[in-house]
């Protein structure tokens, strides 16, 4: 049965308000067309996440994700959420290989996850978040191919923040994203409830990843001038609010295990006002960067839209 597009959009808005609080906060700065598209994109990506995380079994999750993969290849589906995503992809000229990489990343989460190197982590971040940055760039009508590099970087920065915030939660699901080369061999139990010895190593690991995230945030934010003006402000606010999670973790001496780090509405409001005021005075908000920092994508060679932009 086909669900009316208005009903799908209503559901997408509910999902965004419940599960995407940072972007829901920033989205009000978008024009209606871009706001609707961005909401539909978020609902699709969230739907894929939920298929991976909430299925009764890993095997069922794998089957469902592969069904979406086939739909991307054939353009045919009976699932109204996927049908709307296919329509959005046509409207915005999103290449099917981009959401396919997102699915590839989610499929790896169905195995036992223990990343060994930072390069492995960066490729994972590209798949589950850099791809979202690319698709968001498309739904916001960004035409310049050079923008892709910076969209990828902003997604990676946000995902690194996610990983630092959710170490404990991910460990409970059997996932170790903080690379072994940074923290050594740490058991899932130690990630969930660190011993005094492992706490020191984990603080160092989280600090390292948050500093790495800052590199990607800086690059991503430098690419904001590729966006339409209202979208530029929206993405700036989303980035600043998300980045504040890392700042708060730093204020807590990187102790992710004490409680989940969240940003209050009051702090979001202050971040928004400061960012909006600063945007009008900073030249970086108005002038496109001359080049992209190639070293940020050294680990991403061969992935979609990585080798096509300047700076590589």
Describe the structure.
- The protein contains 14 helices and two strands; from the N terminus they run ααααααβαααβααααα.
- The chain is mainly alpha-helical and 312 residues long.
- The chain has a domain of 208 residues: Farnesyl Diphosphate Synthase.
- A two-stranded parallel ribbon has the order 1-2.
- The radius of gyration is 19 Å and the shape is globular.
- 43% of the residues are buried.
- The model has no long low-confidence stretch (mean pLDDT 93).
Tell how many strands the DSSP assignment holds: 2
> Helix coverage percent of residues?
55-70%
- Count of alpha and pi helical runs: 14
Would you list the SSEs in sequence order as H and E? HHHHHHEHHHEHHHHH
Strand content is under 5%
Q: CATH H-level name of one domain... which superfamily?
A: Farnesyl Diphosphate Synthase
Question: What separation lies between the terminal Cα atoms?
Answer: 47 Å
* Biggest beta-sheet profile: 2 strands, parallel
CATH structural fold name of one domain: Farnesyl Diphosphate Synthase
The computed structural class is mainly alpha
Rough shape?
A: globular
CATH architecture of one domain: Orthogonal Bundle
CATH class of one domain: Mainly Alpha
Task: Give the neighbour order of strands across the main sheet.
Answer: 1-2
